[in-house]
Amino acid sequence: MIHTQTGSNRRILTFPAVNPCESIAITTLVDSLLQLAGEILSFKPKDFSTNKRSVKETLRHIQSLVIFFEELRIQIRVGSISTGRSVILSLSELHVIFQKLKFLLEDCTREGAKLYMLMNSGQVSAHFRALTRSISTSLDTFPVGSVDLPGEINELIYLVMRQTRKSEARPDRDDKRAIDSVYWFFNLFENRINPNSDEILRVLDHIGVRKWRDCVNEIDFIREEISAGKSHVEIELLSSLMGFICYCRCVILRGIDVDDEEKDNEEDDLMMIRSLNVDDLRCPISLEIMSDPVVLETGHTYDRSSITKWFASGNITCPKTGKTLVSTALVDNFSVKQVIQSYCKQNGVVSGLKGKKKTVVVESLAAEEAGKLTAEFLAAELINGGEEEMVKALVEIRILTKTSSFFRSCLVEAGVVESLMKILRSEDQRVQETAMAGIMNLSKDIAGKTRIAGEDGGGLRLIVEVLNDGARRESRQYAAAALFYLSSVGDYSRLIGEISDAIPGLVRIVKSCDYGDSAKRNALIAIRSLLMNQPDNHWRVLAAGVVPVLLDLVKSEEISDGVTADSMAILAKMAEYPDGMISVLRRGGLKLAVKILGSSEVSPATKQHCVALLLNLCHNGGSDVVGSLAKNPSIMGSLYTASSNGEFGGGKKASALIKLIHEFQERKTGPVEPVLERERFIHAW
């Protein structure tokens, strides 16, 4: 069987067909043509929402060619046909055409692409027309006169040639009418006018988008196309389509039920709000967020386009290590690509565009105004709608606030925050959780932070109340994440710290066995943010008992590397202060940090925080701590390894720590040894 490209990773309306090799046996070629034809005929006209007439015509031609291929296969097997080069050439061309037709039919029925294919029905028709006429060209080269086939088969070939040569595939009349309606909707949006819902339903019914879940699929597809880096004209249309279909989902098709509601599981997305350094997602060569990360044999990751240019310039070394490569083979780094995609989705960033912040719908006026109309509708539903309408609006707000900074801004401007804050005290556990998730997402918006906190900080106290007394674990987890975002503002960080239950509530999540790693990380990065943005919070964190909790947590070895990294980062920050340093040392923090630094099972980021912790302990603990550290035979090797790995910024700190140890050892062997004041003596180990 001839290998053909699969459509799984193929961009829509691209047809990467594979040419059969010149030496292929004719029996193999005919068998493959029949299989391809069978796959094409498995598509049924009822499965297509647009270009139905072109589809029917194409399937009719393929059915006729199947009769020809089957008869040809019979004649070849009985040896009554001598096949020359012209026969192979003609059939090979048909094989390529069949592959492209299969791709085109797949695109016409692709899940989530119905609206996109409607708006591109002119281009789709042109593809049908070109491919259908190519069938005639290929059959022209088939030597009908020199191949002994039955007369009715020859007549069939001539009939298909005449029909395909005259193919005039055009967009269907109903498709044109639907397209005109969509552009009319765009015009209404631009003038802040809500379109007639019946007219919208007519268009949606025409393309087969009849349920809330159908809209979700359309949105996911359009978002992927926007992220693919299209031209400005294409992006403008895609943005308008995104605004339109989001409006349809929220305002027109509001039939959300328990089974339909998105199961995005914010726990997975909240993993992205940890202390992720966006620089780790950038290509070391271009310094841009990678769009197609690949790995070299050295284990380092680069963007495919950048490393390809590096090799094309005559370099055969790894740019980061300088090591000469045995092979320049590139292996897709799917795990990094997944992280980048999640990060971009969560933060509204389009990868491969120099990390520029882009929202999914601000490239056209129609999309912008549609977003505002959608936000105003949802805000009104929270205030004036019944219980069912309010719940549906909450779900939509929860989803939209995750989509982009643009939607977050629209919803804040529409006054959604104030309504959500009131709903936080709902006795309905599900309602409280959904409202808290929306608040958490809106806390990423600058204006949203101000609205949430309130003039007197009352909003912060309400979130802390949910943090401690929320009906569900998920609600408390979202509250912790919201505090992280809000604490990025210095004044709010101070106000949160001053709320007596805030930091203890975060520490309880970290300590509790009822929460998974995702929840613990939300609490940890909130604590870390409170420390970073308001130094006075360090004594509150210390008083909440965070040091023994974190040391016990790390010692348990039952947590992920991410939790370990966040814990060590907080301990390093606490060790910047004398009282924090003493607390860490008295509970065995020095020995634990050395152990983790020498481990081969932790990430470079975790080791970076270990180095920072050790350096702060030495700076504040004096020569007795440095001396205790110098006694460990493995420490220098671990530090030299860390200093050579500057990928996570730990190289300079490791070098500084090495210098401290060397200076201590030189002083120790000299004539004068410094005397440590009695009150500064600490048992480091």
From TrEMBL:
Pfam families: ARM_PUB, PUB10_N, U-box. InterPro entries: ARM_PUB (IPR058678), Armadillo (IPR000225), PUB12-19-like_N (IPR057623), RING-Ubox_PUB (IPR045210), Ubox_domain (IPR003613). ARM repeats lie at residues 415-457, 545-589. The keyword Amino-acid biosynthesis does not apply. Residues 276-350 form the U-box domain. Coiled coil: none annotated. It catalyses: S-ubiquitinyl-[E2 ubiquitin-conjugating enzyme]-L-cysteine + [acceptor protein]-L-lysine = [E2 ubiquitin-conjugating enzyme]-L-cysteine + N(6)-ubiquitinyl-[acceptor protein]-L-lysine. Keywords: Repeat, Transferase, Ubl conjugation pathway. It is an enzyme of class 2 (transferase). One of its GO terms (biological process) is regulation of seed germination. The keyword Repeat applies. GO terms for molecular function: ubiquitin protein ligase activity. Pathway: Protein modification; protein ubiquitination. Its EC number is 2.3.2.27. It comes from the Eukaryota. This is RING-type E3 ubiquitin transferase. It comes from Arabidopsis thaliana x Arabidopsis arenosa.
